[in-house]
Every structure is written in C-alpha cells, then in structure tokens.
Amino acid sequence: MQITVKIKRFDPEADTRPRWVEYQLDVDPTERVLDVINHIKWELDGSLAFRRSCAHGICGSDAMLINGVNRLACKVLVQDLGNRITVEPIRGLEVKKDLIVDMEPFFDSYRAVLPYFINDEPPPPTERLQSPEERAVFDETTKCILCAACTTSCPVFWTNGSYVGPASIVNAHRFIFDSRDRGTLERLEVLNQSNGLWRCRTAYNCTEACPRDIPVTQAIEEVRRAMLFRG
Amino acid sequence: MYRGREGQWAFVLHRVTGVAVALFLLLHVIDISLVMFGPEGPFEAFLVFYHNWPFRIGLIMVIAAVVYHGLNGLRIILMDFTTWGVRYQKHMWYGVLGLTTIIGIPVLLKVVPEILRGA
Q1: Which one of A68, A204, A221 has the shortest CB-CB distance to B3?
Q2: Is it true that domain B6-117 has CATH number 2.40.10.340?
Q3: Which of B5, B6, B8 should one mutate to test binding to chain A, selecting the residue with the greatest count of A CBs within 10 A?
Q4: Of A217, A177, A183, whose CA–CA distance to A197 is shortest?
Q5: What CATH architecture is A2-101?
C-alpha cells in the first residue's frame, strides 16, 4: 500500500517555525503508525525525532496527533487511516524536537495531586481489606498510562498550560475513591484552585482521546461532585 | 483543527453563543438607555436602524444563540449533577440542536417574510 505521511517537524537548531515534511512509502495496511514512523527514521530520514518504548500501548510514550486526533502511534493501524497520514506533536506542551514535547509541566501537574496512597492510621495486623464493590468505584482510573493524550487534547489546556488537566484529575480520582486512602481532603484542596478541576468545560476530547478507554469526563464529574458534597 | 466530536462542538458553540449574547446584551443596554433622551430621540432612530435586514438576520441569530445557550446550559447541569448525564451527553446535544431548530422555525416564519417585504 502506497501512502503519504506528512509530519510536522521542528529542529530548534535550524528552524524558527515548525515545517511540514512529506514522505512517500510502501507499507502493509496492517502496520501501525509507529511502524511507519520507524520505517521513515530507519530508512528515509534518520534525523526524525520521536519517543517510543514498549510499542504495545502500555508505556504511554508515543502519544501523537494523528490525522487530527490524539492517539498512540503504536495502537493505530494504517488501514484505519487511509493513504494520507498526518502526524504532529501533541499540543499545549513545548516542542523540543519534531514529535518530542517537554512533558515536565504535565508531570508537575500529575505530582501536584499527590498520586500515591496516603494513610497515616496504624497498619492493621492483616491487609487493608477492600470489597470488590469498593474497588470497582475507581477501577477505570487505575488504567491511566500517563501518555498525555487526554490533557493535550483539551481546549482549555491549549490556552492555559497551568490548568491541572484531565490526566491529573483521573489520577486524583484513583485515590480519592479508594476506600483505604485518607488523603482526599488534601487532593481536593489542590484541585479546588483556580487552575484546578473547575476549569474543565466538558468538551469530551479527553474521553475520546484516551487510548485506555477511561471515561475521563465521567471521572472529572465524579471528583467535582465529591468536592461539592464530600469535601 | 483538532477533529473533536460532539462534545468539542457543543463546547465551541456554547462559548461562541455566550460571547455573542453578552455582546448583544451590552448593545441592548446601551440602546435601551437612550430612551432617557426622550421617545423621539436617538432611541427611535436606533429602532428604525435595527429594521435594516442585516440586523433582522442578526435577530434570528441572537434568538438561536439564546435558545442554544440556555438549552445546552441545561445539558451541562445534567452532566454536572447526575450520574448518567455524561453517558448521554451526545444524545442530549442532538436534542439541544433539534429543539433549537424547532424553536427557531416560528422565528424564521415571522422574520424572514418581513425581511423579504422590506418591513
């Protein structure tokens, strides 16, 4: 299958603005976009920069804007895109080179919501038991791989990089609704700031973009209601 | 352009109609306040001026904007305060568009003939 891949490239040492570069190549329809980009890097242009690691949709390294939608390059097949593919870096974060963006602001927001188990009570003699029903409440939000596909699809985040973003709220949800955790009030305090979860305008791009099918907007609304009625 | 789906366009339309209605309200407050110069003064002149066809089309758009913004506001309230709202957000958005159209039909039937007659 003959395809044209258009990639938005930026070399900070040579370019003042990003530029589009087209590549023509012959690929198998069942190959993934990541395979295509690897072909380009290995066989056509070794200077192309992008992140990837596991290549199986788990490490969350290769989130990109593919044909106008945030996806993981390792989870999209060429046959589902047609013979013209455009690839851009995810939006709202500074582009370091080509498809690589500075993820630090994203991880700063993640760290801000205290995404770890908090419980100062004396440890019980056995495990801290949890029923399947209690676990089910936050089951979906345990699936986040921190790829930033959600946060960088958010129109609010594009215009206000200080917004904590959907990924952080998802990870706060994972602990706020954990029956064993005691850090809810601290997390809600962080999310109750002006750039916290009230910034969400329910555009649902995050939910559509999540490669793990986490109902992101649903999680944001649940944390909002927790803030109103529990906090 | 990010290829967002219903939710993104519901958000964009909500923002655009919100700004449009706010600007209209500002204009409306200014023109109504001109009545303090007497009924025959600039207030009357404004009313006549508003009968020009671009403003009549603007009237249709403002009514559509108010109706959309109000109905979509109800959709947002349901998403915020019910456990099921998010699940049905797309359906509700199509409902909002449908209702806005239905409510707009009598407005079109009244205003469009007036524009065509030059009334």
Answers
A1: A68
A2: no
A3: B8
A4: A217
A5: Roll (3.10)
